[in-house]
Specification:
By secondary structure, this protein is α+β, with helices and mostly antiparallel strands. It has one domain: BirA Bifunctional Protein, domain 2, CATH 3.30.930. It has helices at residues 4-15, 19-24, 26-43, 103-113, 119-131, 155-158, 178-190, 192-201, and strands at residues 50-52, 70-78, 81-88, 91-98, 135-136, 163-169. A six-stranded antiparallel beta sheet has the order 1-2-3-4-6-5. Helix 1 (4-15) crosses helix 3 and helix 5 packs antiparallel against helix 8. The protein is elongated. The mean pLDDT is 93.
Length: 211
């Protein structure tokens, strides 16, 4: 769980987003944001290897503040998806799935959804996440994807453009209690069937992703 000091740090960072200020306050970042993220990753080690995102933004091609105004943790991320946790002044974001699938991954996903034998597993995986309070990312395409009928019985799934689920929590006092870690764990564990289904039916892309 992150202490109240983590949010105070983020508020000050928002008002003082430059490298000199961050360097002078790096010990606070490590103590109040990064250390709790490592503790959370240890608790979630059964979901996969953690990835801690660097605090510095690359401003060479994307102008903006040099320091990221959030702490983010990826878990078990491979080319077929994984888990994600982010704390910012916008709230606590908990998510899982495959963000921005490549065209060949979309092809395999839609073929699986078109398959009466494989599609029910995806439906059950989504039901698991919804029961835990996670929602699908968007409504998807306005029309049926090429090659599929608008009357397809699973057209809502075929129209998805992000294969992810998420929950965003407001910044409330429970975030600074053990309830936070337990809730994050329960929400991510609810997405384990989704990650397993994606790994089996979608898999990694054959095309290199841009860096």
């Amino acid at each position: 769980m992150w202490p109240p000091e983590a949010l105070q740090f983020l508020r000050e960072l928002e008002a003082n987003n430059d490298r000199d200020w961050f360097k002078a306050n790096r010990a606070r970042y490590d103590r109040d944001l990064l250390a709790p993220a490592h503790q959370l990753a240890d608790r979630l080690s059964h979901l996969g290897e953690p990835r801690f995102f660097r605090p510095y933004r690359d401003t060479r091609f994307r102008p903006g503040p040099p320091i990221k105004e959030q702490i983010a943790l990826g878990i078990g991320h491979r080319d077929a998806g994984g888990f994600y946790v982010e704390l910012s002044l916008d709230g606590l974001l908990v998510g899982a799935g495959l963000h921005h699938p490549a065209p060949d991954q979309f092809g395999r996903f839609r073929a699986a959804i078109d398959d009466d034998r494989r599609a029910p597993g995806f439906g059950r995986a989504l039901a698991s996440t919804r029961a835990a309070g996670l929602a699908t990312n968007d409504a998807g395409l306005k029309r049926a994807p090429k090659g599929y009928s608008p009357d397809h019985p699973r057209i809502d799934l075929l129209r998805l453009t992000h294969l992810t689920v998420f929950a965003r929590h407001d910044l409330e006092p429970w975030l600074h209690t053990p309830v936070a870690d337990a809730r994050i764990q329960a929400e991510l564990e609810s997405a384990q069937p989704l990650i397993a289904w994606l790994a089996e039916n979608v898999g990694p892309s054959a095309h290199a992703r841009p860096r």
